[in-house]
Amino acid sequence: MLRPAENRERLCWRAWPCHECGKGLSPVSHLIGCIDSDKSVRTDSFEVRCKKQVGWLQRWVGECPHIGEHVLSLTKVGEGSEHRVYADDARAKVYKATLRNVYGDWYFLDENNLVHQASCTPIDYLIRLHIWDKLFGSFPTALGITEAGQIVSIQDFIQGAEPTQEAVDAFLESANLTPVKKSRWLWKRDYPEISVWVGDARCDNFVTTEAGIAPIDIRLWFT
User: Which of 29, 61, 107, 152 could form a disulfide linkage to 25, CB 3.0–4.6 angstroms apart?
Assistant: First the structure.
C-alpha cells in the first residue's frame, strides 16, 4: 500500500550494543545491574528514576563503536497516548517510538477494590515486551533508544478485523488468564512466584487474523 509522501518522518535511534560491548546483557538485565548499584534508588522520585534509566541506556548504547545510528524515513500512521506509530510497507513492519517521557501505564487495586493507574519507567516498559512474548508471541522487539529517550520497537504488521469483546475474553481465558475486573479489562495469570497482569484488554487492542486473535497494544506487568 503506497502512502502519501508528505506523511513521512525521520526516525533516528541508537541500537542496543553488540554482544561484546553489551557484555551479553539485555537492556533489562543492564538496567537491573545499574539499579542494584544505585544506593539512592529507593528514595528517588518517579521522574528521577526515569531520567536515570534513560541515561543508563543512552550511555550503554553510546559505548559501542560497532553499531552506529539508525536513520529511517517512515510513514507516520498514528499517535496515541504512548507511541508514535510508523509503517514500513515494503517490509510489512510497524515501528513504534514512545512519546517523550512516556513509557506506558500499569494498574492496581486499592483497598476498596477500585482500579487505579500509575506510570511506568523505561525498565517497566521493556519488561512489558518480554511478558508479551512469553504470553502471546508476535511481540514488539525493542531496538534501541533515541537522543530524546524514546524507546523504539518493531513488530510485524498484523492485518485483520476487530474482534468482539466476548472473543477477546475467550482468547485471554485460553491463555490461562483469569478476569480480575472484567468490566475494566483487567486480567491476570498466577505463577508460583509472581502474578502476570494484563490491562486495557479491550477488543480494539486486538485483531482477528487467519491464525486467530492477536494483541496489538496492551498493558502488561508483574507483581
Answer: 29
Instruction: Tell me how many degrees the CA angle 205-213-207 measures, rounded to the nearest 5.
Output: 40
Secondary structure, 3-state, the chain = CCCCHHHEEEEEEEECCCCCCCCCCCHHHHHHHHHHCCCCCCCCCHHHHHHHHHHHHHHHHHCCCCCCEEEEEEEEEEECCCEEEEEECCCCEEEEEECCCCCCEEEEECCCCCEEEEECCHHHHHHHHHHHHHHHCCCCEEEEECCCCCEEEEEECCCCECCCHHHHHHHHHHCCCEEEEHHHCEEEEECCCCEEEEECCCHHHEEEECCEEEECCCEEEEC
What's the grid cell of residue 133? 512474548
Q: Strand pairing of 141-145 and 151-156?
A: antiparallel
More confident residue, 6 or 156: 156
Exposed, middle or buried: residue 185 (CB in 10 Å: 0-12, 13-18, 19+)? buried
Q: In whole angstroms, what is the distance from residue 216 CA to residue 162 CA?
A: 11
Give the separation between CA 89 and CA 84, rounded to whole angstroms.
16
- What does the radius of gyration of the chain's CA atoms come to, in whole angstroms? 18
* pLDDT above 60: residue 3: no
pTM over 0.85: yes
Write down the mean pLDDT value for the chain: 92
Whole-angstrom distance, CA of residue 75 vs CA of residue 8: 4
